[in-house]
Fold ABC transporter I family member 11, chloroplastic.
Amino acid sequence: MAVASILFSPPLSKNSPNRILQKSQALRISSDYSQFEVRKVSYRPPGTQHNLLNEVSLSLPEKSFGLIFGRSGSGKTTLLQLLSGLSEPTSGSIYVQSYSNDGNPNQHPQLLSPERVGIVFQFPERFFLADTVLEEVTFGWPRQKADLLLRQQLALKLQYAINSVGLNTISLDEDPHTLSGGFKRRLALAIQLVQTPDLLLLDEPLAGLDWKARADVVKLLKHLKKDLTILVVSHDLKELSSLVDFSWRMEMGGILKEEPLPV
Ligand SMILES: Nc1ncnc2c1ncn2[C@@H]1O[C@H](COP(=O)(O)OP(=O)(O)OP(=O)(O)O)[C@@H](O)[C@H]1O
């Protein structure tokens, strides 16, 4: 099923939503460059006595690829949950800071809002609910009553997501559960990209895939890296090393240290 047949793809004109989308994206980053910044974040789950994260700090410039590695149970997933807004830091802050080219902040830091963040959990295919790829990507979207402008904007977002992950080579009528492992991961990424996030968080993106699908996902991440800021938690350091701009080790007790990959 074609994207356009569901949501109507408009011709491009001066006032087309494509231009509106580009304009709003350009407005979001008005500075010379910006960084996602985590400052002295600690986290203790409500009702417990133990900090899972202890004064974690990191900076990730826009359009760069960061990787967090470390032993199981050290707190890596917990940090992604805080960055995505699923839980709130007990202390510290997570924000976006913009800078001029001379390296000085050029406005007040903005708190990172969850709408700007996409997160793909480990084994995302386990959470697929819909009967078709299209329904899975557009889950929760208005079908009939949305006004024309909204439908046009949604159609463009859908097209962007589908094309970005290479799902345009298959029918959107396919059952998500029958896709290959690599295509299931593409679909999981499309579900996030349709929200046009600025920061994409991936928890163990290669886990459970065969060698071919793993190579496929690495290639896809290389492509996505051109337009997105990506932060990955993974044990697959060798396979991801060619993508990595910044890396950190999470030590037991939730202590984060910037460190080169040990590969
Ligand atoms: N809500 C919670 N309450 C108490 N302890 C928790 C809670 N959530 C996670 N934990 C514990 O926090 C620790 C860190 O978990 P987390 O999943 O962040 O580790 P991880 O580094 O991502 O591990 P893995 O590599 O195995 O995915 C674990 O010991 C986990 O059992």
Remarks:
- Strands lie at 33-43, 53-61, 65-70, 91-99, 110-111, 117-120, 199-203, 229-233, 246-251, 255-258.
